[in-house]
Structures are given as structure tokens and as C-alpha cells.
Fold this sequence. Notes:
Elements: H1 3-10, H2 21-24, H3 27-43, H4 51-61, E1 68-71, H5 74-84, E2 88-93, E3 106-110, H6 113-130, E4 138-143, E5 152-161, E6 165-172, H7 176-180, E7 183-187, H8 192-199, H9 205-209, H10 219-235, E8 239-250, E9 253-256, E10 259-263, H11 276-287, E11 291-295, H12 304-314, E12 320-324, E13 330-331, E14 334-335, E15 349-352, H13 359-368, E16 373-376, H14 387-400, E17 403-405, E18 411-414, E19 419-422, E20 430-437, H15 440-453, E21 457-462, H16 471-480, E22 486-491, H17 497-507, E23 513-517, H18 531-535, H19 538-548, E24 552-553, H20 557-566, E25 577-582, H21 585-597, E26 601-602, H22 607-614, E27 627-628, H23 635-647, E28 653-659, H24 666-682, E29 689-694, H25 698-707, E30 712-715, H26 719-734
Pfam family, one: Succ_CoA_lig
Organism: Streptomyces lasiicapitis
Protein name: CoA-binding protein
Amino acid sequence: MSAQDHLSAQDRPSGDKRLSGDDRLSGDDRRTRVRTLLDSVRADGRTSLTAPEGKVLADAYGIAVPGEELARDVDEAVAHAAHFGGPVVLKIVSPDILHKTDAGGVVVGVQGSADIREAFHRIVANARAYAPDARIDGIQVQELLPSGPDAQEVIVGAVTDPTFGKVVAFGLGGVLVEVLKDVTFRLAPVDADEALSMLDSIGAAEILRGVRGAQGVDRWALAEQIRRVSQLVTDFPEIAEVDLNPVIATPQGALAADIRVILATEQPKQRRKYTRDEMLASMRRLMEPRSVAVIGASNEPGKIGNSVMRNLIDGGFSGEIHPVNPRADDILGRKAYKSVTDVPGEVDVAVFAIPAKFVAAALEEVGRKRIPNAVLIPSGFAETGEHALQDEIVAIGERHGVRLLGPNIYGYYSTWQNLCATFCTPYDVKGPVALTSQSGGIGMAILGFARTTKTGVSAIVGLGNKSDLDEDDLLTWFGEDPNTQCIAMHLEDLKDGRAFVEAARATVPKKPVVVLKAGRTAAGAKAAGSHTGALAGDDAVYDDILRQAGVIRAPGLNEMLEYARALPVLPTPKGDNIVIITGAGGSGVLLSDAVTDNGLRLMEIPADLDAAFRKFIPPFGAAGNPVDITGGEPPSTYEATIRLGLEDPRIHALVLGYWHTIVTPPMVFAELTARVIAEFRGRGIDKPVVASLAGDVEVEEACQYLFERGVVAYPYTTEKPVAVLGAKYRWARAAGLLDGGRAVGGQSMT
């Protein structure tokens, strides 16, 4: 029996737009019904479903659709239209014609026997001309959906993203979807709350609530369409794409006018999975090793093996360091071994400093020695086209249970262990920030920034080709590491997006995760077979799903580094009310813009607080928000207004705008600000305070002074301090630490 025969015999559409598969079918019955259909489509050698077959899936999963019937001849079309009793839409039904409109296979708003007959024959003729060999199964007769100011066209769909797997999409529908690309994405499946959040995540969200006298749409019905599509593709991974376009949303409900379903042609390659305990066990021995072997250690300056040895020794690593070189007896005063298998005792990490062609054989020895981690510095693997060589070392690692960091990396730093396993410049400033990079050049930029700004780090790790260990392993470790308070990651791709999201969701409630995603392309959309697929450009999906995971996405390298440096300094805000106190009106305007641009809220100053501020500012100053104390005021005015901002419990964060005057020099401002904030912290009042300092070069020293004392301050910019504050707020919301915040795990932590 063909798929179409199956449809005709068992699943003839009922025409009842109120049908809800979730209500009529048990979970097992629903899946059995869809499984039978998909197997039949596969047996026909097809990868796309016809509209009536799509209706079977919709009915099974409760995806609301208008009444529709399949007409196999013109008389059936007339009868079905008469049954609906109003204007109808006629659509070609052919497994060989995916884009019906392009084929002239859709006629909208037909009514009356004569018009139905004429439209039927016209559609069939157009289809024959468009695709002479196409199989035509009939004409779909569908109720015409409502139009008018209360009816909104949207798109609901799902795609299979190469990084994140099943992803559900929502946005404006119809022609606008391809022009405006106002679409948002989430990992499938989504729950009801996540589906509802998607309605507010598009730029045109206000339209759905009703504008210019129009009523808002039925949000629950629309969210249910999203949720049910997400469940369908989760239950059936072989469904590559689902497209409901358009969905007509009205105050009374949401109905999918057209359903397009495309099946995958191949199964994605599965990566080996590790449990959380397995990750932590191997990462602990990598980041807190007691014994390190350097394969390719050298006495010759300028060699990578020499640089790694020097950094390990000079950095003060207290564990054992074992050089391995078959042509040396002694390296830098330490006994050298011909093979890593000759090294006595347990070894936690083997650092490779040998050419790529020798790595596989040496890795076999590492496996026989039962060393759990290999740090592969050499290049010459997949990044140069040597995929087979990289596949070989991955297979060796998996066979012996050796986790691989790299290849093609600069190494790594674990500062709290005084471990510098790299051929680059050493770094030993301990602190709360863990930094990772996929690129060696970015890794050195991280190092230079950290040194220049005196940023203390817990680790700096190169990932390179990510043949095995990747961001989710590091996130899992740093999430538990007591020395790490903030994690910042540069990445060009994710090998397993879902594993990363799982690790991020577990980490974000405890500490911020900042990501700089490079390589913003939409190349994957070229091969898409649906509207949803064409809209799912790489960067659009990354952006929404990283946000869904609670990750702070940095727009550039400097922002990533500044967020990492500043977020551990700022205390967590306890509310949304932000007050700007400035000595310059122009700075106040720019700071206000920055607050809005970063999704923050300026407090509406109540009358009593306004009167309190006015006591300290001159008559020509301005209360309100910003509070403009004017530029000629002495230090006492800055101090009094800052004190008031810290004392009033209704104010949750302060943004300070300073400009350089002889009356209040930069260091005087910095010292009084730091002193007052320290006093309040001693009293248990700890609010985030950021500052913008404008003036001569002395403001640079003042900013450094403030930063070292817990005030995030920047010279010559109004944007950067507020961007950092915005990042702190985004993390606090994602972690569920603000009133009304929803933790990324799905439950409020307040």
C-alpha cells in the first residue's frame, strides 16, 4: 500500500478544525500513527510529504488546521466546497511539487460550482506545465481562513541545525518572513512557558498584542502550535524540517494554513558522549595534575619542547616534570626518558611537542601507560586537510580512554597550580577568570589583555581543532572549580551544541558564562527546503539558543575580555532601578542612551527621592534621572549624592558620570567614591556601581584605582561601563537571581 493509499483508507481528513491529537490519541497511538505514515513515505522513495499526509501528522499531534478534504476529481472538489459552505482555497497535491505557489498550484477565495470547476482544471494544467512528470494525487479543498486587522500571519517551524539538532522557529509569516527575517529560535522540545516567550522575542511582538484598535491574538493557541511542532520533531528525529506557513492567528485561535514536512536523507554522525562524572574526573587530572610528561622535550632554545619545559620549571609547578626524548639523557637538569612508558609512577598529563606525523605512535604509548590526558600542541591535522590523521588519533584516544586537548593549540595555563604548559609567554597572575579560545592568536590577545589590565585568571586554555575535549568539558569543570567565578570563551563553532547548552544551563545559575562566537554566516540556509530552513542562518540560531542557555554573548573580542574582567568585580543587582549621577549633562544623555540600548531601566524618581537629591545640587542643576549635579561642584556634592544613591533601598544600581575639573580632580573623585562604597559594603549594602570618566590622562589612573576597589570604571567612554552592567543584569536574570527572574533550568531561584 502506498503512502497515499494509506492516507485514503485510514486517515482521510475529517474537516474538523477543532481536532486536537493530544486529546484524541494516547502518546503511543500518536507515535504509531506517524511512524506508519513516515515508513510508508520512505517506502515510496520520497523525502517530502503531501499536504494530506501533513494533515495526518497535524491531527496526531494536535496541530490546529482548518477544515480540508482531498478531491480526486472535479466533482469531489465541488462537493467538498459546498460542505464547507463558504470561500475555499484549492491547492495541488503532488509528492513531486514541493513549492505549490511556484507551480501555480494554489487558488485562494474560490466559491460557487462554476468557479470551483474552473480553478480545479487551471491548477491541474499549471501543475502539468510546471512538472510534466509529476504525480498528481488530487486537489486539496481547504476552508478559507479569516483575514482582516485581527488576523496575523506568522510562521511556525522546525529545522535540524548541524550544531544544535532540532530547533523550533517562530516569526512573522507570509511574504514578510523572507524580507524582514523577524524570527526567533529555541532548542526543541519547548515547554509552554518557553513557547510563550518566543512570542515576545520577535521585533513585531507588539503586533501580536494588538495595535491601532486591533485585538491581540490568542497567545495560548499560538504557543501551543509551537510546542506541538517541537514535540513532533523531537519524537521523530528523521523529520528534517517542518514548516507551518502561514499560521493565521486571531483572537479566537491559531490555524496552520499550510504544512510542509521534509525528511532527512542521512543520519548525523554521533559523537562519543561522556558523563558528567567522567568529564570531571579527566578534567581534574588535567587542571590539577601531580605529574606531567613532555613528549619531545628539548635542550635546544627555540624549540617548542624547550619552551614548554622552561615554562613548567620556571613557573614553579610543584608536581613531577618528566621530559621524554629518545636522543637525550638529561634535559634542563632532569632525567629524560626514551619513551613515556619508561616514566615511573602515574602520569596525569602528556604534553606533545613533536611533529604531527609522530603523534599517533606516541599516543599509543600514552594509552598503554594509562595516562588520561594528552595535550596536543602540534599543528598539521584537520586544519591543514589532514582529516585522516586526526581521525586516527581520535580513534587511538577513544580506544585507550585518553582525552585529547587540541591538536593545533598553544597549550594551557592553570595558574592556581602554577602550571604553564605552553610554548608561549608565561602568566602567573592568579584570579577568578577562566578564559578559553579556539584560536592561538586570540589566546595571545587574551594573555596580553590580562597582563595589561592586571586581570587575575584561574586558567587560559587553547582548544584548537577540538578533536575531543571541547567547550562543554571545560564548562563542566569551571562550573565546579572554586577558583573560577567567571568563564569567557572564544569559539568558531560548537561540535555538540546540545552538550554545550546542557553544560551552560548547569553552570549559569552559579557563575556567568561569556561567549564570543566568531564566523557569522548563513551558508547553511542555501540548501534548505523550507521557509524555516532558509531563515535559520548559523548566527541567528546561535544567538537565540545561547540566550536560551543563559549565556552572555559578547559582540567582539574586547567586550568579551572586559566582561570577563568586570563581572566578578560587580555585585549581583537586587532589582531593576538604575540611577545615573553625573557631573556633565552631555555624559548623562549618552549614559541614558546606553542604559536603554542594553535593555536596562532608568528608575522613575519618586517625589521624596527627587527632593532629597535636590538638597545637594545647585539650583541650575537637574534632579530626575539622570541626576545632573553640574561640573563645578566640589567633592562633597559627589559624595553626598553617591551616599544617597547607596542608602535608598529603592535604587538598585548606580551609573556615575564624572568629568575632569580642578575643583574635583580625578583621583579625588576616585578615592572618595571607593571610600564611600567600601563603607556601605561594610554595612552590608553592596550595589553594582559603574563609572564613566571623561578628562585628561589622569582619569586613566583613577579608573584603575576604582577597578581595583570594586567599581567598574572606564575612561573616555560612556558605552563600555553600561554594557558591562547590562551583561551583569543579563546573567542575574538568567540565573534567576532577580525578582521574577526565570533560571535557565526552568525554575525561578528567587
